[in-house]
Write a structure and sequence with these properties.
With about 400 residues, the protein is α/β, with parallel strands linked by helices. The protein contains 17 helices and nine strands.
Length: about 400
């Protein structure tokens, strides 16, 4: 391999939450977050939502330095299902995350006497660490709501001693995992909303920043109708053509890249990716790996379209496809035949289309039942207007690449 090639490191990073070398097309969303940081009293929190592959986690991570630069503290993590199964579990999650920024904050100094006649008295710092927070939580009387509210109010009384600190951002990814469990009499989502609304009314600057699939905001509204006024919802869409081109070309402009894509090749990536940031990273990673090998071997350079599609199907789609039943696959195939399948569709449209393709068409009740299961599996989501959409971008293209004989019966 030539010295130029050996010095080149492929800059593209397709991975869950991996920051791309150039963040394209998200300036408006960052500006909106900056606006929220300028609030004296928290009137609006933020929800970042969108399909998988639009870069929600990447954008969330990009907002943290913005908050820190504006003298806000930042806590948070991924919201796993185990952390959201009960009111107590979400409270402990918040308490644990808060302790990361408070554990070195001294709330008071106490004298301690060592054993011995001539032992000198020492001063010990009492810090607001996890053990102290948990102790206060356990000893606070009342419901989980009362305990958590008390912890947050007390914590701010300590944090605010530093007058330079503007507030705390509580940032949680995969927040669509939050849901109330009426059957178990557990309401972790309602608890979160009630507590933050309450402390924000007291002008405590703790701001929620939640990211998740499009099922997130309807869940918030269902739990508490005031969520509609409590959150500024930012829907991350796919990139436009100019933004796609920037995402493709910017990462290699200042790199030791011996290969440049032609305009034709760039347009192929734009079209194949559908404008989704993850797919741009995935495709460009594969393209440059292959092109560098071909150049070193003296082969003609071209975009390996077929190879990329095969690898994308294997790495991204196949795992999701394997988790659905045969009848659900048939339903998804029918959906993929709708003219506007990549936008929104209704149960009635699916039923009508199934009559054109299937010997045993679907009934409305059957479609509703399967859509609910597919929604739980993260393949479909229902919006607030009763229509459905694919939760995974380019899913219809993948479905239409499958042998139809195996799906129609």
């Amino acid at each position: 391999m030539s010295k130029i090639l050996s010095n080149f490191e492929n800059p593209f990073r397709p991975g869950a939450g991996h920051r791309p070398p150039y963040l394209a097309g998200r300036a408006r969303e960052i500006q909106e977050f900056d606006r929220l940081l300028r609030q004296k009293v928290i009137l609006e929190n933020m929800v970042l939502t969108g399909l998988r592959g639009v870069g929600k986690t990447v954008l969330l991570d990009s907002l943290k330095p913005k908050a820190l630069q504006a003298n806000w503290l930042w806590v948070g993590t991924d919201l796993s299902e185990s952390a959201t199964i009960s009111e107590n579990s979400i409270a402990i999650r918040l308490l644990t995350d808060l302790s990361v920024i408070t554990s070195n904050m001294v709330i008071k100094r106490e004298p301690t006497q060592k054993i011995g006649f001539n032992a000198a008295e020492q001063i010990t710092d009492v810090k607001l660490n996890y053990n102290l927070l948990k102790n206060i939580y356990d000893k606070t009387p009342g419901l989980v709501h009362d305990k958590l509210k008390s912890i947050l109010e007390f914590s701010w009384s300590v944090i605010s001693r530093n007058s330079e600190i503007k507030g705390v951002v509580f940032a949680y990814d995969e927040a669509q995992n939050l849901s109330d469990q009426a059957g178990k009499e557990q309401y972790p989502l309602s608890l979160l909303l009630d507590v933050f609304q309450s402390i924000q009314k007291k002008e405590i600057p703790f701001m929620l920043l939640l990211t998740g699939l499009p099922t997130l905001f309807p869940k918030l509204i269902e739990a508490r109708t005031f969520s509609e006024r409590m959150f500024r919802v930012v829907f991350l869409d796919k990139l436009n053509k100019d933004e796609c081109i920037e995402a493709i070309t910017k990462p290699i402009e200042n790199d030791l890249c011996p290969v440049r894509l032609t305009i034709e090749a760039i347009n192929i990536v734009v079209e194949m990716s559908g404008g989704y940031p993850y797919f741009i990273q995935f495709m460009c990673r594969e393209i440059y790996d292959v092109l560098l090998q071909k150049q070193d071997n003296g082969e003609a350079l071209s975009v390996p379209v077929d190879e990329i599609i095969i690898k994308l199907d294997t790495d991204f789609f196949s795992g999701r496809w394997s988790r659905v039943t045969d009848r659900q696959k048939t339903l998804l195939y029918v959906i993929a035949q709708l003219d506007h399948c990549d936008d929104e569709f209704t149960v009635a449209e699916i039923v009508a289309r199934s009559k054109e393709f299937l010997q045993k068409p679907f009934s409305s009740s059957h479609v509703n039942q399967m859509l609910s299961s597919l929604s739980n599996a993260g393949l479909i989501f229902k919006n607030r207007h009763g229509k459905y959409s694919f939760a995974v971008p380019l899913m219809s293209d993948f479905i239409n690449r499958q042998p139809s004989d195996d799906l129609l019966y």
